[in-house]
Specification:
Elements lengths: L1 H13 L9 H20 L2 E3 L10 E5 L8 H17 L6 E4 L17 H4 L3 E2 L2 H9 L3 E4 L4 H4 L15 H9 L3 E7 L8 E2 L2 H11 L6 E2 H7 L13 E4 L5 H7 L10 H26 L6 H10 L12 H11 L8 H6 L13 H10 L11 H8 L16
Parallel strand pairs: 1-9, 2-5, 2-6, 3-4, 3-5
Antiparallel strand pairs: 6-9, 7-8
Helix pairs in contact: 2-13, 5-7, 7-10, 7-11
């Protein structure tokens, strides 16, 4: 029955046009020109336990999230895995899954860049999409805490929030190991983020922002560039040994994976969460005592002489956005033209510049805005839709 269903699904996918928003050229160029050096000199990551990472899928790479408002921990981890993977298989990339709240509105996308997550290889986090990625043999980078993991605030640092039970079902259906990845020190990127649930609910209702960190979020309302603020915490990523979640499911007596007992799945998810919490506590004790490592930071800034401004958060908006735009326009005629054609980026540094930024996006032509585009063209360009693999399947793996 499962074989028939899978064959029918393959035939259904083959009948549709493939959709691959991953822009490998853009991603590699971004990493090599400034994202990679920025990460190397500012966050100075350590990636440990690489031998525990499966060379091929299917596999679920489950990581904890930091309690700050912007997911730099996920971006740095994705970049580190990508650079390590390129040494062995240049065309391979872990597929992150992301919550739609992180792309539904332009101010929730990194630096307002259209379709950023998908261009970097991510896929919308839906139940069916997760299953299809594992069936393709992908290694899926997943944050089982979801948005609550990012929005838990500094007071609950390193306290893993409730895990969704869906990844347990996916792991069991596809015999995919769950590989824990422990992220240490990311909580110190924004150590002054505190949450109020009623305020978070109001922000989600009015602005589609799932949380409003205090007091830093209020400052970010005034100066938009502060939304992307990050302190130079040294990020440590420890890849743990794979967990055979499928065996846990079998031991629990579950045989029907099309409609499993949800309570049993939640119990197994909680077992995985408790195991990861113990591992996280152990690695925090070992690697989290000095989160900033200022001596090492000074050393890196000496090595970055002449380019130090590039590695500071105040310049990141300018670098990211201009790089994305330059891929869709001719080279600047001179230095003055290079500056003036991106004049609107100065609004990130203007008090209450969010409203003016929104207006310029409407008034300016592509690649700086949407003037002249139909509503459908704009929606496609922004990526402001939920991507379902059943409707727009990825091409077959190489």
């Amino acid at each position: 029955m499962a074989a028939v269903s899978e064959a029918a699904r393959d035939g259904e996918d083959a009948a549709r046009d493939y959709y691959e928003p991953l822009d490998s050229e853009y991603t590699l160029d971004m990493v090599e020109k400034f994202l990679g050096p920025m990460i190397e000199h500012y966050f100075r990551p350590r990636l440990l336990g690489l031998q525990n990472l499966p060379a091929k899928g299917p596999a679920i790479l489950a990581a904890n999230h930091s309690g700050s408002a912007f997911p730099y921990d996920g971006m740095v981890l994705d970049c580190e895995l990508y650079m390590r993977q390129r040494e062995r298989a240049p065309d391979e990339k872990c597929r992150s899954v992301f919550e739609k709240a992180l792309s539904a509105t332009w101010w929730m996308r990194p630096f307002g860049i259209d379709n950023f997550w998908r261009k970097a290889g991510a896929v919308d986090a839906t139940f069916d999409n997760f299953d299809r990625l594992l069936q393709r043999g992908d290694r899926v980078l997943y944050y089982p805490e979801g948005v609550p993991g990012i929005g838990k605030g500094f007071r609950r640092r390193y306290q893993l929030q409730r895990f969704s039970s869906s990844f347990v079902i996916h792991a069991a259906r596809n015999e995919a190991p769950v590989v824990p990845i422990y992220i240490v020190n990311a909580e110190w990127i924004i150590p002054f983020a505190f949450m109020l649930r009623p305020l978070d609910a109001l922000m989600m209702k009015l602005f589609k922002v799932p949380f409003m960190p205090l007091p830093w979020g209020v400052l970010a309302v005034i100066f938009p560039f502060l939304w992307y603020l990050a302190l130079p915490a040294r990020l440590v990523f420890v890849i743990g040994k794979p967990v055979d979640v499928a065996a846990m499911v079998r031991e629990a007596g579950v045989t029907d994976l099309t409609d499993p007992d949800r309570q049993v799945m939640r119990t197994i998810a909680e077992r995985v969460r408790r195991g990861m919490q113990k591992g996280l506590d152990r690695h925090v004790e070992r690697y989290g005592r000095w989160p900033y490592q200022c001596r090492l930071l000074r050393k890196h800034f000496r090595l970055a002489a002449g380019k130090r401004l590039l590695y500071l958060p105040i310049a990141w908006v300018w670098k990211f956005v201009r790089h994305a735009r330059d891929r869709h326009r001719p080279p600047a005629r001179n230095a003055v033209h290079r500056f003036l054609r991106d004049w609107d980026l100065l609004l990130y540094y203007v008090p209450f510049g969010w409203f003016l930024l929104a207006l310029t996006r409407r008034w300016r032509k592509p690649p700086c805005g949407y003037r002249g585009l139909t509503e459908e063209e704009r929606r496609e360009r922004e990526g402001a839709f939920t991507w379902h693999l059943k409707d727009r399947p990825l091409p077959p793996r190489p």
